[in-house]
Write a structure and sequence with these properties.
Blueprint: E1 4-11, E2 15-24, E3 27-37, H1 41-58, E4 66-73, E5 77-78, E6 83-85, E7 94-96, H2 98-106, E8 110-114, H3 115-126, E9 135-138, E10 146-150, E11 153-155, E12 176-177, E13 180-181, H4 184-187, H5 190-206, H6 224-232, H7 236-260, E14 264-267, H8 269-273, H9 275-289, H10 292-296, E15 299-302, H11 309-319
Parallel strand pairs: 1-4, 4-8, 9-14, 14-15
Antiparallel strand pairs: 1-2, 2-3, 5-6, 6-7, 9-10, 10-11, 12-13
Helix pairs in contact: 3-11, 5-7, 6-7, 7-9
């Protein structure tokens, strides 16, 4: 495979990054990066352009050396037309033709995908999913997004809404995620685990019992991380919170396995950091709920790209052009 110089643009609600990468023989090296705050639309687009010029200039390159520009951004968006369509974390980004803007500026082909799909491409091409043809990626971060690699290519659906697994309702009651109580995201996300923990702590406090990891009773201070830390110290209530999340993770994944029959499910962020707390009960539920033949051929593993996945994600969109 020929060496290709790629540019990745990661557009987030509070910060953005421009990354320069080198793709060669199926490997991807990050060569340079600049990051800056997300401001208003006009200012952020200006900073993205300047960021691209900066990483090129620092590496003695021009736009003529770039093979492609990849953009990762929260949805909704139209990946076919290259338009960002009013993401909730990006006020004012209403029907912004981001790929056309960058193509006109640099004379280089550009593409955009939502961040979950971009992360799926990254783990498939350069991370835990190398060599697979049917892979599902789950973010398991603040929310629960997913990207689908089916039959050796990214599957985005009719209008970029394929893989919105967090919206599936797993129970009539439970933490709220994706605007649904009891949703997959409600049980399996940072915000959902915090909600679940707060509810369980509140119940204990009202019974007059102390909770060591919430000594002041400030429920809003509870995070998935603080619960995990308490669980590792052996706290029974914290371990129960993660047990509930693990059981519903198994329930949700059993639906994914039954419908899509993937060979690999890659899960990032909270799962990757807390596999020991989640995997045993998740596998127990999978063994009861998923089709045995489908479950037998599917592995569930933590994401391999760690904290760099956002950089790899944007570059992977470029590598896929």
């Amino acid at each position: 495979m020929a060496e290709r110089i790629l540019v990745g643009v990661d557009i987030g609600g509070t910060k953005c990054a421009v990354t320069l990468g080198l793709s060669d023989s199926g490997n991807l090296q990050i060569k340079d990066k600049v990051a800056f705050p997300t401001t208003d639309v006009e200012g952020t687009i200006r900073d993205i352009k300047e960021g691209i010029r900066t990483v090129l200039g620092r590496n003695s390159l021009s736009s003529g050396n770039i093979a492609a520009i990849g953009i990762s951004c929260g949805g909704p968006l139209d990946s076919r037309e290259g338009v960002i369509m009013s993401p909730p974390n990006l006020p004012g980004w209403d029907n912004i033709p981001i790929t056309r803007i960058l193509e006109d500026e640099f004379g280089v082909k550009a593409a955009v995908h939502n961040d979950a799909n971009a992360c799926a491409l990254a783990e498939w091409q350069f991370g835990a999913g190398r060599g697979t043809r049917n892979m599902v990626f789950l973010t398991f971060g603040t929310g629960l997004g997913a990207g689908l690699i089916l039959d050796g290519k990214l599957f985005a659906g009719t209008n970029d809404n394929a893989g919105e697994l967090g919206h599936i309702r797993l129970d009539a009651f439970g933490p709220v995620g994706y605007g649904k109580a009891g949703s997959f995201e409600g049980f399996c996300s940072g915000s959902g685990i915090a909600q679940l923990a707060a509810s369980m702590v509140k119940e204990r406090l009202q019974m007059g019992r102390k909770v060591d990891w919430c000594p002041d009773g400030n429920l809003s201070s509870i995070t998935a991380r603080t619960v995990a830390e308490a669980a590792r110290r052996g706290d029974a209530l914290a371990r129960e919170v993660y047990s509930v999340s693990a059981r519903y993770l198994g329930k949700g994944l059993s639906i994914v396995i039954d419908i899509l029959n993937p060979e690999l499910i890659v899960i990032g962020s909270i799962y990757a950091r807390n596999e020991d707390l989640l995997k045993p009960l998740m596998e127990e539920v999978l063994s009861k709920e998923a089709l045995p033949l489908a479950n037998k051929v599917c592995r569930v593993v933590p994401a391999a790209l760690g904290e760099s996945i956002g950089d790899y994600a944007a570059l992977s969109v470029a590598a896929n052009i």
